[in-house]
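Data card: per-record layout.
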Amino acid sequence: MSILVVGSVAYDTIKSPSGSAEKILGGAATYFSLAASYFTDVRIIAVVGAKGGVGASTVAHNLAWAIARDLALDSVVIDLDLAFGTAGLDYNKDPVQGIANAVFSPDRPDTALIERLMAKCTDRLSLLAAPATLERVYDLGEQAFDAIFDTLRMTTPCIVLDVPHQWSGWARRALVSADDILIVAEPDLANLRNAKNMLSMLKAARPNDHAPLYCLNQVGMPKRPEIDAKGFAKTIESKPIACIPFDPKLFGTAANNGQMIAEISARHRTTELFLQIAHQMTGRAEVKKPRGSFLSPILRKLRANKA
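The structure for this 307-residue chain is written out next.
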């Protein structure tokens, strides 16, 4: 269910015996939205690679597409790889502004600013794109994205974070503070080691939250020795939620055209896998149509004759 909030949004200055704070996001609309978020399912899903180049961004973007299109949830993708992010290319968008404008804004980002910075991909999917330029160095503080995430939580049911493969203070904080985490790994030894280490650390750092999950990507590459899903499950002590097959033609076509896999082939097995991942990450079980018995056609005819 969607809720339209109409009211004031302003900056407040708060003073108390224990201290003071300036430019705190306030106003009637802000407080109402925060209260409503406790009764509406708002999720931040962080997607990260166990190694660089495993296709975590591709998984994140297709996952967000499935959540928005097939599950009908208003969603935002945030590309956190400010220097080399590919979300703009994958969605065929070239916005002038994006996530960097919010991060480096001198004022705390509010809903109005975030709305201006987002690029619309579909009716239900928006993008906060990375600048993907090297004009500046992106040495960010640990809490660099906190205000942006807090603001989006007030208005967006689902936020998908495309987290780059790096171990900085802000990257760790983004993962630990997310509601759900998906680690993307390729079926080799280095990915197995990294995925196991990341899963162990995140479980310990988030003991009361959903356990982090993982999937295998680019499975079945010709002539490459691989550790199969059973080998991963034995070492990690949990099964991957999906094994995405190696398909260079399908993924290459989608990347070069700025399209999602579902746009290239709606009935493809990989499209179904992304939908399966979307159901699992959002906690929305797939509604399956009940199978009719062999007597169903006869019963329908009898009902039709009575009518």
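Known properties of this structure: The chain has a mean pLDDT of 89. Residues 189-205 form the longest helix (17 residues).

See the next section for split statistics.
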